Amino acid sequence: MMRWGWLALGAVSLLYPWLVAGTGSAAFLQDMGALVLLAAIGASAWNIVGGYAGQISVGHAMFFGAGAYLPLLVFQQWHLPPLIGVPLGIAVSLALALVVGAPTFRLQGHYFSMATIAVAELIRIVVSYWDLLGAAIGLQGPAMSEHWWDLTFRSAVPYYYIFLGVLALLLLVTWHMQVSRLGYYLRAIRAGERAAKSLGVPVRRYKLYALMLSATFTSLAGSLYALKTGFIDPDSGLGILVSVQLIITAALGGAGTLLGPLLGAVILVPLQTATNTWFGGSGSGLTYIIYGAIIVLIARFEPGGLLELWHRLAPRWSQRREDSRAA
Amino acid sequence: MGIRPDRMQALAWGLSAASAGIAGALMAISFSFSPEVGGTFAITAFVVVTLGGFGSVPGALLAGLMVGLIQSLSAYYLGPIYKDVIVYALFVALLWLRPQGLLGTA
Predict the structure, then answer these.
(1) What is the mean pLDDT of residues A286-294?
(2) Which among B46, B47, B85 has CB closest to A126?
(3) Cβ separation of B84 and A122 shorter than 8 Å?
(4) Residue pair A66/A222 in contact by the 8 Å Cβ criterion
């Protein structure tokens, strides 16, 4: 049963661009598919440290921004292929993860969350005034593709498959982590830091590992975003709403579960596109009102996210079906 | 012991919100403000409390004065954009060096 579910999921995601190709708005739906995958990558990356390890980062925009800025920076300032900036972005993100994580992971409570906000805001302000990084205007990517490694395509389909590959890799890494020592340690830390420490879990070191793994993939998500959009500015790359979006996507589906962030992305991205389409530019703030409502509703009624709700309700339904069959 | 935690938490939350409201009203006299200005002040407030030490009233007072001075001086000598940057950097440095704060005990 489980295996069929995975096969179906894989088949649908592989065939999606073809399935919608016949419809009237193929390009629009393919683009949205790519955006869903991108949101899923970001949210799954956040999920490693925010979900599994239970360390709520509200500053993941700094990793996303580092990943987004460096490819466009090496292109615009030094005329190098943007791809060279991808590993550079990851390197910067890992350094930032150390700066934030090393002091705060000694402490418990809200220090980590607050430090992530503070550092992300610090970086956003500095970048907004830094001419090399385009200041408030931002940076642009290649307008026309000269080589395939510019990764600049007109259609969304190549991006879709690149994103799908990265997401598959990330889910594989997360799944592997889940069943490995790292995953058990992280869940122990989330359940109770003192208890974990007393049982000999090197709490600080493993929280740092989780943050670095998470930062790597968040940076990658940022690079993919910048390559697809071809443009980055302080708000779209480093704004606090970038961090909030990652958190909400993961929390809506189910933080600390493998497929929760993907589920959250499948729901939220079309919702966001719909509100933007229905209400136009004047409704762009509506997305964040909806985000706020979602946060309140999840926190109050379903802290485990939709996947947990499903796991609780599904057995009850199948039970009812069996009952009615027996009667 | 007869203490009702939910009521005490609600009371603390209400008092905190009320005093933040008073602070906002006072700030509006001398600062420019926009709908997004709250976040900056909230982070600054957290930095102040961390610097003073959680749960320490004299610490919060002392740290509030210090952070205010640091903000004004860095705005004057380095330029207004560095006002918040310096405070955030101070916060991270503080977490390295003295996470319990100036007058904190833990």
Answers:
(1) 80
(2) B85
(3) yes
(4) yes
